[in-house]
Amino acid sequence: MPSHESLPYRPCAGIAVFNAEGKVFIGRRLGGPEHTDDIHAWQLPQGGIDPGEDTYRAALRELYEETSIRSVQKLGEVPEWLTYDIPAEIGGHAWRGRYRGQTQKWYALRFTGDDSEINIVEPGGGRHKPEFVAWRWEKLEKTPELVVPFKKPVYDRMVRAFAEYAKP
Description:
The chain has helices at 55-67, 88-91, 152-162; strands at residues 9-18, 24-29, 42-43, 46-48, 72-77, 82-85, 101-111, 132-138. The chain is α+β, with helices and mostly antiparallel strands. The chain has three helices and eight strands.
């Protein structure tokens, strides 16, 4: 069995969806081995990029699969990929032990629809399993304190990159 440190990173798209008031969509995760307490169970939509898939298209796909959101306009992106390691003690449970963490391409989008478009119970037209049990609009600068601690540096960088969009 390979060591945790020798495993590759999973390519992933992260999405910060801003409403008209400058707040971002944040979802409370359904579960997973990395969620160990009630405070750090929140995150922005994110998901894997398929081999050969355009990163922005992957972001839009993942957003729809997790939230049913389609009414968006692109605002910007973090220029570099942001990477985190999942703690080794839970690495064998996450992604079936195939990855040491994720490398993420982050996009900022403006939500142009109505909140009624958001459906976390039957996301993606009911073709995808729910990943969130609750959601809300949150101040961007609060998000790093709501995610699992090992993702905090990624969220800190994303917040700095997207601060200009967090205004009404």
